[in-house]
Amino acid sequence: MSLLLVSGACCLPVLAAAGPVSSSGPVGEVRVLPCGGAAAGGLGVRSWCGRGARIGDRELVGSAARAWRAAPVVRPPEQAPISAFYAETGPPGQVWMTVVGLAAPAPEGGELVAFVTSDVVDIAGGAGGPDDARLRVRAVTRLVDGSPAAVGFVDHTPDPGDAVAVEPAVAAFAVAAPGTGVRLWCALTAGPEDHAGGVDPVTWVPQVPGASAANTVAVGSGGATVALAPGVDDPAVRPVLPDPVTGRVGSGRPGDVLAERGRWRGTLDAGSVPARALPQGWRAVTAVTDHPLALDPAPAGEGFAVTSPVPDGVEPGTRVDLVSPAGERLVLGLLAAEFRVSSAGPGTAARGRWRVQPTEPPDLGARWPVLVIPAA
User: Fold this and answer.
1) Could you give the CA distance from residue 335 to residue 332 in angstroms, rounded to a whole number?
2) d(CA 260, CA 251)
3) CA distances (Å), 31 to each of 10, 25, 109, 193, in order?
4) What is the pLDDT of residues 43-76, one digit of tens each?
5) In angstroms, rounded to a whole number, what is the distance separating the alpha carbons of residues 373 and 267?
6) pLDDT band at 39 (very low <50, low <70, confident <90, very high)
7) Distance CA 129, CA 153 (A)
8) Which one of 19, 86, 177, 188 is least enclosed by Cβ atoms within 10 Å?
9) d(CA 98, CA 90)
10) What are phi and psi of 66, to 5 degrees?
């Protein structure tokens, strides 16, 4: 089998699969666009050039495409062309596994992006390396519109073949659009929200225990946050696309929590429509210090009114999170305060009412799926 250059695109012939790596006949080809050449027409990850030290490994890329076509999860349409945009084995000491990034048109519009991987070798390092004969689809997401600043996944729950490190960590990966950088940020980490632009073209940094696609985001070079895909069998979250008109989540249940790019985006009501009611059992707390706050919904567009005392030393701009009984954590917004003239005299001011103001407008299914955290 040889590499073919077709109209500026490198194509790998691919065989159909009865299992993850066996073959039984042709079904199409995997396209790999060269970097430095003319960009492919149209938008989306399929227009990205192929990167990673192993993007030219036709056996690896072909096996990954066969694994995706044969997977029991979301698969590409039977005759749809598949594009490979990344292939590499991660470094020991970080998330040590092989990742192949694939993209294909989605039947309902947009495109599917899949991450086919090996098992994770002990993140702390160990003998040997990833076994590329054991490829599986670890995550799949649907991009609805446009080309994101990055794509990636967070696999909250280890797969059966993954090594369990002495200090548990969560496998995560992200690759930036060509010519840009990416980093990961998780709401479970201590410290203020940090959306400084990413500088590395790819990141394999393992995340803290409890990290998931609901509370972890990719941050592009310009500081824009991008949703990450959950693992295909992740029990903590599942991707959904709300109805674009009503916002209704057909597969949702009352009390389910909607999360998008690490933020709380509503709690499903009796009609499975996102409502501004805080989820039952979740606590509002200041980030880092975990000071509890009592909140009531303010008029639309004004976030939540703080109805409990705000301690000294807490300043406007402090991040406020929602924390579930199980330890899930989502960003709610930033503290804001109304100022009034102080009784101390002219030229002085005192803080009046406090509120929590959302920091970013929601993107409920316009570009990528949002995530449902099932009600307890």
Assistant:
1) 10
2) 17
3) 6, 18, 20, 38
4) 699 999 999 999 999 999 999 999 999 999 899 9
5) 10
6) low
7) 21
8) 19
9) 6
10) -65, -40
Distance (Å, whole) CA 91 – CA 247? 41
pLDDT confidence of residue 8: 38
Q: Between the CA atoms of 44, 47, 52 and 56, what dihedral angle is there, to the nearest 10 degrees?
A: 140
pTM, to two decimals: 0.85
Segment (H or E) for 172: strand 171-176
Q: Find, among 319, 310, 261, 259, the residue nearest to 288 by Cα.
A: 319
**Burial call 219-254: b when 16+ CB within 10 Å, e when fewer:** bbbeebbbbbbbbbebebbbbbbbeeeebebeebee
State pLDDT tens for residues 100-110.
999 999 988 89
Structure confidence by residue, pLDDT tens digits, 299-322 = 766 789 999 999 888 889 899 999
Q: In this structure, what token pair is assigned to residue 151?
A: 């794509």
Phi, psi of 45 (to 5 degrees): -65, -25
Q: Residue 68 has which token pair?
A: 């995706």
Single-letter amino acid, residue 131: D
* pLDDT at residue 193, rounded to an integer: 61
In the numeric block, which tokens belong to residue 126? 């160990």
- The C-alpha atoms of residue 154 and residue 205 are separated, in whole angstroms, by 10
Q: What confidence category does residue 349 fall into, taking pLDDT thresholds of 50, 70 and 90?
A: very low
Kindly state the percentage of the chain with pLDDT values over 70: 81
DSSP for 208-272, please give it: PTT--TTTEEEEETTS-EE--EEBTT-SS-EEE---TTT---TT--TT-EEEETTEEEEEE-TTS
